Structure formats: C-alpha cells, structure tokens
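User: Okay, second chain of the day. Same drill as before: sequence in, structure tokens out.
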Amino acid sequence: MPQEYRVVFSTLSKFLRFFSLILLLPLVWIFSEPSFFQCILSFSIPSAVSFILGLILQRFSHTTESDVITVKVGAVIVLFSWTTVILLSALPYMLCRLLNFSQAIFEATSGWTTTGLTMFPVVEGLPKPVLFWRSLTQYLGGAGFAVIVMSTIIGPTGLGFYQAEGRVDNIAPNIRHSTRLIVTYYLLYALAGTIALMISGLNLFDALNHSFTALATGGFSTKNNSVAAFDNLSTELILMFLMFLGAIGFGIHHAFWSGDWHALRRNSEPKQMIVLILSGTACVSLAGIGKVFPTFSDSLRHGIFQVVSALTGTGFSTVDLKSWLGFPTGLFVLVVLMLLGGCMDSTSGGIKQYRLTVLFKTFGMSLRKFLLPKTSVVYVEIWKGSARRYLDPQLIKEAFITSAAYILSYALGVLMLTFYGYSLEQAMFEFASALAGVGLSCGVTSPSMPLGAMWTLIVGMFMGRLEFLVVVYALAKIFSDALRSFPKQA
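Assistant: Same drill. Structure tokens below.
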C-alpha cells in the first residue's frame, strides 16, 4: 500500500475513534424519554461501530514524522471522512425505526452539510436525543468538524488537509492555533445565543437547539412550523443576528476580536451581504403586500427574516413557503440569494461573497486596463479577514471555475427534478436550497418523494458543501492511483 494511503487511514482511524464519543452526546437527554433502551442502543451501536472501524483502520496505517499531508492527500481524507461520518450518522435514525436507509442518509447529509431539508414532516413527537442529534450534526458540520478534529490530531503538517476542505482563513500562524480560535468563537457564540433565546422566552432545549442551528446556518428546528411556531419578534431578531454571525467568515470574526479595525473596513463581504439583505427585503416586502402578506408590518417582519435565512443559507422560516408558489417575485429573489450565499470560510453555503467580490473586481480591473495606457500596471487588492491579497490569475481562475461548477450543477439538478414531474418553479427553488445548503422548502422534500429525486438532492447537498472540486480531485486521485497500481500487480 502506498505510504500516502497509510497516512489517510491513520488520520481516519484517529478521527473515527474520537467520533465514537460524539455519537454518545445525545444520550444526555435520554432520561426523559419513554423509549429509554431503544434510544441507548440507537446511539451506542453506531458509536461501537465507529470505534471498531477506527481500530481496523489503525492496522493498515503507519506514519512517520516526515509525513506531510498535501492538498491531494487532504482531498482524499476530506472525501472519506465526510462519507463515513454521514453513513454512521444515519444509523441512529434507522435503529430508532424512524427512517429507511435513503431517508436516513438524506437526513444525515442535510445535517452535516448544514442544509436543513428534512425527511420528518412532524418533528415535535421525535425523541429528544434524535432532535438534539440533528442539531448537533449541523453545529459540528458548520464549523467543519472534520477539519477541526483532524487539524488538532495532525498538527502543523495538516495544512494541505485544511486547504482541501476549501478553507483559506488560516487566522493564526499555525493550523492548530487557528482551529482552537475557531472553536472558541463558535462555542462562545452558541452559549451567548442560548442565553439570549432563553431570555426571549424559549426553554433550554429549544434555545440550545436553535442557537446551534442558527449559528451553523443549518435550519433544523424542534418545531413543526420552524420559527413560526414561536411567533415571537424578539426570538426572530436574535436568530437573525445569529444567522448573520454564522454567515460571516471566521477570519473576519478574528479581525473583530483582535481589534484590527483597518482590516474590518477593507473586507467587502459583510458590506455586500448587508446591501443584498436590504435590497432583497425591499423587493420581497413591497411585492408581497396583498399577495402573501396582509399588512406592511407583516411584509417587513417576515420578508427580512426569509431574506436573511436565504442569504445566510440557514433555512429557518416564519411563513409557509408553499403559499409562495403563486408569488414568483419572492421565490426568484430567494433563489438568487440562496445561490450567492454568505462569506467565504463561514458556516454558510452558496457561491460565496468572496468569489462575487473577485468577479466584480476582475471586471473593474479589465475595464481599467482597457482605459489606461498599455504600459500601465494595475494592482487590485482584496481582503480576507486580516489578510490582504492582490488579484491574480489563480484567484480569478478559482472563482470562475467554482461559480461555473455551481451554475452547471444547478442546471443539471433542476433538469433531474423536472424529470420526476416537479414544475420548473418547484425544481429551481428546491435544488437551489439543497445545492447552497439552505433548507427552505416549497414542498418538494418529503419522505414519499421519488427515490431518484431524493438522491438528486442528496448529491446536490454533498457536492455543494464540499464545493465540487474537492470531490472531483479526490476521486481523480483515487482512480489515477488505482490505475497505476494495476500494471505493477500484473
């Protein structure tokens, strides 16, 4: 076995043994459940499977101090770790006899990719450990659980793995310090959010779950009608703030807490988000009066919440979006916002504001070069957190390739859903929600939906979260290495 794959198995072995402990966390809520023993088995069996898999992989692994994880090897680790964790996370839903295999994979994928589309039409009757597991998977998936855990395991040699998952905000001199800062910010925000939601009137369980899924921009709720069930303006304002925090890149958070005000002013992503929220709210609110909103105050309240939820990729809702099928303006605005998404290196999905900035600045740079003399040299700076970069061909290529991959995948996904009989309007909205990791639904997602349509959304969620190229690069490396090994064996 090539040494690269021994490193892959070694890293996965440590990760799976640690993940076996995470699978036991929902049992904190077990004592209030009538199905006590079934819930224990539903989480302890996957935990044991994860631990045993870790021990098995350890037998095939061998690393030395000189082993460095490159971006190529990191891509393989990302693909294997995400696939394994989704399969293991689906087991509790199946062992609780709540979902079948495909439905459980859908729910687990929706959780870890922080999408929020669900196979549960009714959630208020679910066991508390299951509800908490849904929220926990989103909270951990939003922060990049695999990256955080494995960067701690791997240490300074794991830069390739960190970059392979699409992260560029190395906010500290080394990866281990960066991940510790991310965990610190994330935990403090969740604690503050939980306290604030309890003050607004929610009980501890609802406050903790919604704080987790708002920060993760995930959108899983403990209520059948999502945030609409609370009908509480204070709760909605707190959740909008948490969603916005989650959609801001960790590098920008670090610049704020370290007092780097110059860098904060130079970052364009939060400014773009605010502009999109204001303009989107104006469009939805004004166009919806008399159609889906009875009064201007209702249109403003619900319009801004849906816009923030769509742009940040959260998926909370205060209205039934099925009623919006006769409101094409509102659905179109939400589709555009879902595809654009939040900031780079945040818990949000979508194309990302950073790439949008690159595209705009590329256009401006091309225009300036056209107007200036041929001998002129144009430098365009672009800020990411506290780091300043200059627009270069590599940055432009990455932005165009990823944006093109999103658009192409979106078109294919919409085509697949229409093949299963959904209207173009339904297909466009639902697949945008899946691909961008949002979770808003116009009624397409259900446990009775066609199996092919269900797996179309699963693939869309998975590819959208890992931003296509990681999956493509990992599969290309695996197949390339496999083909090279055949002649040697022959």
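The beta strands are 381-384, 387-390.

User: Thanks, on to the next one.
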